[in-house]
Predict the 3D structure of the following.
Amino acid sequence: MIGAADGVFCLEGQWNSDLQVSASVLPTLEHLDRAGVMRYIHRDVATRDEVEYYLGRLRRKQYARYRVVYLAMHGEPGHLWLDNPQRVSVSLPELADLMNGACRDRYVYLGSCGTLNTSRRVLTEFVNETGAALVCGYTRSVDWVEASAFDILLLTYLVTLKYRTGAEKYLRGKTFGTWSEHLGLKFVYRR
């Protein structure tokens, strides 16, 4: 059942240059909402200004319950791509600047290929700069369908578990550990 701090705030980048392609993480979010696991806010973004605008809105008290910030985009080590055909990218330090305090004590999930395949220093600076309780994501290129299925688990445990290391412990355990390893799942915590 949905609780007091149960939301996912999702910004989704442009997956394809062909506007007729409708790939989206929205069905995953809708499924979890309909299952009573969480509520969500979803917005499409293609520019730094849009990311900054929506993250700025997240700082409002009315959105305090949305403790998971999910950025669903293409990626590469240390970067997210907001607009795939134009390869508009944002580095993790640039993203921390755009967040400007909006992710303090939140869980940041970078749902993008390989973005967390960067130095520990860059990731530690990201969580410290943003004030996020944790950042998680992938160190490898991931298959769309596999990652979509895994998102159901990851988002569920980020939202419902009471302690910040709970999702990682569960997903690295006996049942899902091989899958997590295959995807290159990584967690970094603020100290």
The first helix runs from residue 26 to 34. Residues 28 and 152 are 7 Å apart (CA to CA). Residues 7-189 form a domain with the Rossmann fold fold (CATH 3.40.50.720).
